[in-house]
Amino acid sequence: MSPPVPEQSKPSLLDLFIAFQTCALHAFGGVLPFARRELVEKRQWLSETEFTETLGLCQFLPGPNISNLSIAVGKRFGGLKGAAAAFIGLYGISIVIVLCLALIYRHYGRVPAMQGALNGIAAAAAGLILAMAVKMALPQLAARRWLPPLFMAATFAAIGLLRLPLLWALPALALASITLARERKP
Length: 186
Fold this sequence. Notes:
The chain has seven helices and no strands. The protein is mainly alpha-helical. The protein folds into two domains: about 5-145, no CATH class; about 145-185.
């Protein structure tokens, strides 16, 4: 459990809303790297370790990681109102944008240039996720903690390359990582 946040550094409900809306507007469809930068580097509401641990928890919860992260961070700083402010900040404008894009796609979706643009956007989103993974792994490697990056790579290989089912690969790798971590504790 994280220590309580001093009142003077505690973000307001509006701060939570704006931070997650900023992430959503900057990174439509690939929000996690921008959320990490916003929460850890820019606003310094979370340390690198707190972000990684919170994201790890959010990955095990049902639903999109970024949704869970917005709720967890909002709840930590503002209780239920904070969770709602962060979640609405993340999704409010996004819903409007998606509806507008759906209308555009309905009329122009079969145009080859539109298909090319969508392929380019998908590649950019994949690059952003890869860059975030590298940023999260580097502090672990610098501290000579090899297990977290090793399990990140193993998870990617199992699911992304070998196409093993997520439902089986993730719990198996999680169990293996927990077992190894426990054995290594002094």
